[in-house]
Here is the input.
Amino acid sequence: MAARMDGIDVLVSEVGPRDGLQSIAPVMPTAAKKAWIAALVAAGVREIEVGSFVPPRLLPQLADTGEIVAFCRAAHPGLHVAVLVPNARGAEDAIAAGAHKITLPLSASETHSLKNLRRTHEQVLAEVARIAAMLAALPAGSRPEFEGAISTAFGCTLEGRVPEAKVVALAERLVGLGCDEVGLSDTTGYANPAQVKRLVKAVHAAIGPERMTGLHLHNTRGLGLANVLAGLEVGITTFDSSQGGLGGCPFAPGASGNIVTEDLVFMLEAMGLRTGIDPDRLLAARAILAEALPGEPLYGFVPDAGLPLGFARAA
Ligand code: ZN
Here is the structure.
């Protein structure tokens, strides 16, 4: 964690190449992914979730994740390369490919977990234990970070309200089984700022603030940046976002999926919080994305409106 926070106040973790691309029908060519990632790195992005180790028949959009991880390790030595894995099998691939960070999603809603992963909480937690054992067997220096990401933490499209006590209990289990960190994901875009503060504080009280530094927010109902502000106020220092809000939301036409990287970086820098990311160079990366995915809607206010006259990055 330490090195990628050097000289910055907030880490913007780009998840477009995973969360964005897995949510759209077209398959982005590998060469275009590499060009996009290179442009993001040139803009100052320090951490990118570059893919997911799931069977290609389930997500053909991410079938080249192994090659993308290898490319990032070779071409962008400063980049922190993160991947998602659904199980221990995926973690094996992630370790072999050389990922720096492995994230395993666990849905707070068991209904959601059964529908999406066909696994109960206990079955997913057994995978967590398997992965932790696998990582513990590696030499200390080559051991990727392991995050347990609690999805549908703020509400579920199938179960509705998710009890906060359940999220806190799962966070405790994840740390107990060997996750270095826990993240909270608003997979469904249900979160509101008061809820973000309440739940972050509750999880911090249970596992310690140093074990929960990141939020994964969606902008489905337009509250994404308000939720970021709420997170900042309770000590969150890492926010996932996706360039152009890629992926959208099939249930809310016109709504971006993840919060939009361009708007997030603008907000943080304008508030005096250093991200290390140059908003102008971010637009060059967006142009590559737009060209590689013709017709795919890209979101964000700042790319349309431009930066305000006299805008200066945080110093
Ligand atoms: Zn997401």
Remarks:
- Residues 53 and 108 are 21 Å apart (CA to CA).
- DSSP finds twelve helices and eight strands in the chain.
- The beta strands are 11-14, 47-52, 80-84, 101-107, 145-151, 181-185, 214-216, 238-241.
